Every structure is written in C-alpha cells, then in structure tokens.
From TrEMBL, chain A:
SMART domains: PAM. It holds the Pfam family PCI. Belongs to the CSN12 family. This is Protein CSN12 homolog. Residues 254-458 form the PCI domain. PANTHER family: PCI DOMAIN-CONTAINING PROTEIN 2, UNCHARACTERIZED PROTEASOME COMPONENT REGION PCI-CONTAINING. InterPro entries: Csn12-like, PCI_dom, WH-like_DNA-bd_sf. It comes from the Eukaryota. One of its GO terms (molecular function) is RNA binding.
From TrEMBL, chain B:
Transmembrane segments: none annotated. Keywords: Nucleus, Proteasome. It is found in: Nucleus. One of its GO terms (biological process) is double-strand break repair via homologous recombination. This is 26S proteasome complex subunit SEM1. Residues 31-50 have a biased composition (Acidic residues). The keyword ATP-binding does not apply. Belongs to the DSS1/SEM1 family. It holds the Pfam family DSS1_SEM1. InterPro entries: DSS1_SEM1 (IPR007834). Residues 1-68 are annotated as: Disordered. GO terms for cellular component: nucleus; proteasome regulatory particle, lid subcomplex.
Length: 464, 87
C-alpha cells in the first residue's frame, strides 16, 4: 500500500492540485494501465483502513498534518471501495454480462467519494486547493451517473414506480434519476466554493467557482433544465467578492463563456451572446476543435442577427460538419435565393432544432430577402448623367416599379420547396416589412405603384 | 495576484506543467450530449497559444455580394426586368 500511495505523496509534495486529483481518478493513467488493479490488490476489506492510515502517516517523502492525514485516509478508503466496484463492472463488461446494474453500484460507491471530499473540505480538514480534486471527482460522478441512468433504463421494466426522486408517480421510461441526484451533490460543491469566507484570496475555495459552475451547466443542459443554469449565473453575479474573472485558468473561463453565451442566445439576447461566444472563440485552445465547432455553431447564427455577417468560406472549410449544415444556407443568403434558403433550412432542420438554433436561423431569411431586393436595385442601373456631372457621381435609379420587386420575388421563390404563390398585396407587405425592419430605406408610393428608395443608403450597411 | 502563487496552487501552473496534458480522459464519450463542451486537455494556456494561424481576420464576410454580374440569377433577373420595361 505504501508503494500504491507513493504517487499521491509525490503529487502532494509537488503542490500541483491536478496531480493530486489525478491520484483519485477512476481511470488509470496511460503509462500505467494496471494502477487501479494494483491499488485494489494492495489491501482487503478488513485491513484497508489500517493499511492506508499507516501508508499516509508514515511516508518518508511527505508530512501531512494529522487532521489532513485523517481526512485523506478516509477518502482513500472510500476510494478503494469504489475502485473495487469499478473493477467488477469492467470485468463484467469484458465478460459481456452488463445486466446486473454494475454501473449503478459504481455510481453509488463513487458518490461516497464525492461526499467524503465535500465533508472534509467544509470542515476545514483539507486545504482550499483541494477544490480542484473535488471538481475532478464531481466530473467523474457526472459520467458515472449518466452510465448508471443508461443502465437503469435497460434493466428496469419500462413502467416503474419512481422512488421519490421525481414528482411523477409513474415514469414511463427510466429518466435521469442518478444524474438528478448527482446535480444536488454538485450544488453542494458549488455552494462550498462560492460561499468561502476566507479573506485571503490565495487560500480561497472561490477559485473553484467557475469550474463547478461549468459542471452544473453540463449537468443541467443534459437534464434540459435550462432555468436552473440561469440560477447559477445569477448567484455568481450576485457574489461581489470573487477574484477577477481574468485571473481564472483559461479552461474555466472558456467553458463558462460558452455556456453563458448559449444561455443568452436562448433568451434572444444576441448582443450578449455574441460577446461571450466571441471571447470563447478567440481564446479557445486551438487543438480542441470539437469545442471550436460548438462555439461556432452558436456564433454563426448569432452574428447573422447582430451583424448580418456570414462565415467566410475559409472558416467553414476548416469545419466540415459546419460546412455541411451552414454552407448551403449562407450561399443562399448571399445570393438572395429564397427557395434555396427554405430548402437548406429544411434539409438540416432536425439538427438545427436539436441545437436550438432553428428559430434564429429562420430570421436569416430576412437577410436573403434583403439581398434579393438589393439586386433589383442594382439591376435598375443609374440615372443618366447630368451636364457637368462626373461619372463617379452618377446616381442609381431610386424610383422603381413595385412590379420589378414582384418579379424578382416570384423568381426567388419559385421552384421546389417554397410552394409560395405571391400576390401583389403580399409583395407590398414584404416590402413594407423590410422598410419597417430598417433593412431597406424608402417608402411605397401606392398611387404610382412605385417604391421610392433613399438616395443615400437604400440598403443600409451594404454599400448602396 | 493569481492562485498559482499559493503553495498549493489550485490551478496547474502552465509554466511548471509545460502545457503537459492533464491526463483526464472521458471514459463515456458515447454518452455525451452533442452540444456538450469537452474538457480541455490542459487547464490553462497562454494568449500566444490561442493564436490561430492566419489570425482572426477573414473569418467573417458581408452577407451580400456585388460581384454577381455574370451569375445566372442576376442575368435572368435583368432579362425579366427588361421584358417588363418593353410592355
């Protein structure tokens, strides 16, 4: 056992929290795949407590204060039991008999590890930096909870009486019982970090606030409890004495900004969403391409609304999946192809709905329409040059028959998919809408059947 | 003043760690929601490391296009409008 706990002593002496957290990981390191097995085999149920206590107390490399030593002893004993469950689950998995609820046992055992670390952090036996160990243990609890829920869904009959974890008396399908339970554990962890009153910020658990918030976000998003995520943001914003946001590690900040950005996005606060997502994009770790893709999934619709911008071909080319779903859409927006836009939206509808971006993208149709009308304006050409007027000063024709716009609209909406037949009133309605939304400047002269556009900036922000 | 100045830094100091990977692999990738943000392989990194080759320019462009004089739709549109004018 002395040898098995040597990595812990080394990590503790190094002063690096993540190394200590790693010695409490339920996943063995790549360079030592047998670590969990060796650790478990180093003792047995009767002697484990004595073995671990002795190994932690009488180490040659690290001197722990007695209180902290006692806390780690308890945590490692509980960890040892959890490792036993993990090994049993893996063995069952290898033998193809994963029907006895092994992951539920693993989850329950791992929850004890989480509760023990919460206990010893809140009573002060463990120093504040161990919140990073708590986060790591929590993150694994989340993953075990999801595995356990998946298994529960398989082993339990399809109709089951709930055991008080849910409001429904009968649940049709097994729900996320374990993950909901884990969320309550994470909430305790979050509160433990947020509510630390130690005035010395270097010895504060507040450094764990954002990573614990991120753990809650991931959990609540999975549980589809978006409003609970907003509560997390509110309680952080209400806490005035947190360290400056900039001082936190990048991984905490970027993940936090991603989720806060999505929350703003879902509340249609696109300006705020754009700010958070742009920050996340700018500082994202370059090798984490999946995360970059996720940020862009929300940033692209966001910028379409706030700036009427579309991603460049180079940007989309770097992300084949985004190219697939957004590529056709932005091509149609650019060319003002309304039928094409409708078809592209329809083609990726399931994905857009799942990502909760469908309704936002739908608003991009206005931009496509604006571009179509803009083309009518460009096609109308210029007024004849007046005497003495330089060619560069010539004016575009700004009085255009409604009929021209109607023709363009009918061309833009014909073909498969749109199924629209526009009558003249509808055309006028669409034009009036564009003017109302500020995408086109001018007025409709019904008596003359003309649209009179502004001489300067008929389509604001588009150079004409 | 950052947390990494404490004796037991709650964050992995990127300088000491040399950007060494935090060996935390997610065992349950298949269970994750599609839009779930992945854990970063390291906890902290410098501004220089986030620089994307080619910079952040040219990522976005205007949604409209002026260079369409030869494009099918533009040509068709002109034709249609010409017909209207002749009526």
């Amino acid at each position: 056992m002395q040898a098995a706990l040597q990595p812990f002593h080394d990590a503790h002496a190094s002063g690096q929290a993540w190394r200590v957290a790693y010695t409490l990981s339920p996943v063995p390191p790549h360079d030592d795949p047998g670590r969990l097995y060796d650790f478990y085999r180093a003792s047995n149920e009767h002697q484990v407590e004595g073995d671990i206590r002795y190994a932690l107390k009488y180490s040659q490399t690290s001197k722990l204060p007695p209180k902290e030593s006692g806390a780690w002893t308890d945590i490692f004993v509980i960890y040892w039991r959890a490792v036993g469950e993990i090994l049993r689950a893996e063995e069952a998995s290898n033998q193809g008999r994963m029907n006895d609820g092994q992951w539920i046992n693993v989850y329950d055992a791992w929850k004890e590890v989480a509760n023990a670390i919460i206990k010893y952090i809140s009573n002060g036996a463990l120093p504040p930096w161990t919140v990073m160990c708590m986060y790591s243990v929590g993150n694994h609890l989340r993953l075990f909870a999801m595995k356990a829920d998946t298994q529960l869904a398989q082993v339990e009959p399809s109709v089951t009486f709930s055991t008080g974890l849910q409001d429904d008396v009968v649940t049709g399908v097994a729900k996320n019982n374990k993950l909901e339970e884990a969320a309550r554990v994470f909430n305790k962890m979050f509160a433990l970090c947020l509510g630390d009153r130690n005035p010395d910020i270097n010895e504060s658990r507040k450094w764990g606030v954002y990573c614990m918030a991120n753990l809650l976000f991931k959990t609540y998003f999975k549980l589809k409890a978006i409003s609970l995520s907003k509560n997390v943001v509110k309680s952080i914003e209400a806490q005035v004495d947190l360290p400056m946001f900039d001082l936190y590690p990048q991984s905490h900040k970027i993940t936090y900004r991603y989720y806060v950005g999505i929350l703003a996005f879902l509340q249609e606060d696109y300006a705020n969403a754009e700010q958070h997502l742009t920050e996340a994009w700018d500082h994202c770790f370059p090798e984490s391409t999946k995360n970059q893709e996720l940020i862009l999934t929300y940033l692209i619709p966001c910028r379409l609304i706030t700036k009427h911008n579309i991603p460049s071909p180079a940007l989309l080319a770097a992300f084949p999946h985004l190219q697939n779903i957004f590529g056709p859409l932005v091509t149609c927006i650019k060319s003002g192809d309304l039928s094409g836009f409708d078809n592209a939206l329809l083609a990726s509808e399931p994905e857009f709905v799942k990502r909760r971006i469908y309704l936002t993208l739908e608003r991009g149709r206005d931009i496509a329409l604006r571009n179509l009308l803009r083309r009518v304006f460009l096609a109308a050409g210029f007024e004849e040059l007046k005497e003495g007027q330089a060619a560069k000063d010539r004016m575009r024709k700004t009085r255009l028959p409604i009929e021209h716009f109607a023709t363009a609209l009918r061309m833009g909406t014909r073909g498969e998919g749109s199924g629209q037949v526009l009558d003249d009133d509808e055309v006028e309605c669409l034009l009036a809408n564009m003017i109302y939304k500020g995408l086109m400047k001018g007025y409709i002269s019904r008596d003359h059947g003309m649209v009179v556009l502004n001489k300067k900036g008929a389509f604001p922000g588009t150079g004409v | 003043m950052s947390a990494s100045t404490t004796s037991k830094a709650p964050v992995a100091d990127p300088k000491n760690g040399n950007g060494e990977a935090v060996p935390e692999k997610k065992p349950a990738a298949s269970l994750e929601e599609d839009d779930e943000f992945e854990d970063f392989p390291i906890e902290d990194w410098s501004e220089e490391e986030t620089q994307i080759p080619g910079g952040n320019t040219h990522l976005w462009e205007e949604s409209w296009d002026d260079d369409d004089t030869n494009e099918d739709f533009a040509v068709q549109l002109r034709e249609e409008l010409k017909k209207l004018g002749q009526k």
